[in-house]
User: What shape does this take?
Amino acid sequence: SSELTQPPSVSVSPGQTARITCSGDALPTKYAYWYQQKSGQAPVLVIYEDNKRPSGIPERFSGSSSGTMATLTISGAQVEDEADYYCSTTDSSGDQYVFGGGTKVTVL
Amino acid sequence: EVQLVASGGGSVQPGGSLRLSCAASGFTFSSYWMHWVRQTPGKGLMWVSRTNSDGSSTSYADSVKGRFTISRDNAETTLYLEMNNLRAEDTAVYSCARGGVGTAPHPFDYWGLGTMVTVSS
Assistant: This one.
């Protein structure tokens, strides 16, 4: 099955740019999805199909994907962006989903 | 407002069974693919299973295949997960998530908070 690798943690100062990477062999041919999970809350979709932002997600969240790596960028990170972020994709069949291990983003 | 409320979790011995439910509201349940995802503190998120909109097609993670069964009742707008032969490694918070309409794959655009399943002797 496919695997996705994320850095365990990323730290950034308020107003700076945070970049979270996600690497996996399926990414050249499958979309990447990104989820934000704050403590005690359900995950929230922040990026789908590599770079699309759902309604209500701030413009400072953007996504890109090239080759075996997808990247979530938070431009001008805010304190309220502190959360765990998970990337996800599907396997080669498109029928099973896989998540990365998650990245804890600290804004301070 | 989309709401997904999971229930049915609890403590069970290895080899035991549980049936989880996810009550959905705020959207046309019968149009959407639905998923179960579990989360453990040490291992993050893991996709468990999905069903298409009418329940005629299902898929499972390899680690639960043959032990778990996903189903749905569109009239009752409820998603189910029947879990048999439970193992310690199945211990997790189980959440339901909404997929999309039509041909997959879809992102999970709404998630419920989940119900805790503990498998221990």
